[in-house]
Design goal:
Helix content is 74%, strand content 0%. The protein contains 5 helices and no strands. Helix 2 (50-84) packs across helix 4 (129-141) and helix 3 packs across helix 5. The chain is elongated and about 70 Å long.
């Protein structure tokens, strides 16, 4: 009885954190791209002032603290559900595929989470603008992070599609061969 209650709480935390994490990443990328020239190779706009830049980066960083926390919750809860529900993988293949995709996206999400945490700490400690700008720009200038973040966004969108449409789910069959 209590295991079912724990599983329901874990699923609630997982899906709530998943929504905040995924939606937060989309919003954060939208915020970040307002600082760059359209169609450029991540060249900062020249017509913005330092307060505008710092306000935008601080908004990006504070949202990063929330999305990083939610990512850690999603990661831990998905590992728990993976271990506790592994008997369903043959029946519900989409769960297994979603988990494998999630683990593959963790290769880029874990370093991004670390960078987001460093940026949030720098903003909290009110360090110099140059240090904050460097921490912010690493995510966009480094090819690993820039390309990986885009791929991770597509992978996570695929995971959401798997959660919604649930392909590869073997239907349950009763003793007479009828699909339940």
């Amino acid at each position: 009885m209590w295991i079912e209650t724990i599983n329901k709480i874990v699923k609630f935390l997982l899906f709530t954190s998943l929504i905040v994490w995924f939606g937060g990443n989309v919003v954060r990328n939208s915020i970040a791209f307002t600082l760059f020239e359209p169609g450029s190779e991540f060249i900062l706009l020249y017509d913005f002032t330092d307060p505008y830049f710092l306000t935008t980066v601080k908004l990006f960083g504070v949202a990063g603290a929330y999305t990083a926390t939610c990512y850690v919750v999603v990661f831990l809860m998905s590992i728990y559900l993976f271990i506790s529900n592994r008997k369903y993988f043959k029946i519900k293949g989409w769960i297994f595929i979603a988990f494998i995709l999630f683990l593959l996206s963790a290769i880029i999400e874990i370093p991004n989470t670390y960078l987001d945490t460093q940026l949030a700490i720098a903003i909290r400690d009110d360090v110099l603008k140059d240090k904050i700008q460097d921490l912010f720009m690493i995510r966009f200038e480094n090819a690993f992070f820039a390309t990986g973040s885009a791929i991770s966004l597509f992978v996570n969108t695929s995971i959401l599609a798997l959660l919604v449409w649930r392909p590869l789910e073997t239907p349950s069959v009763d003793q007479h061969g009828k699909i339940i």
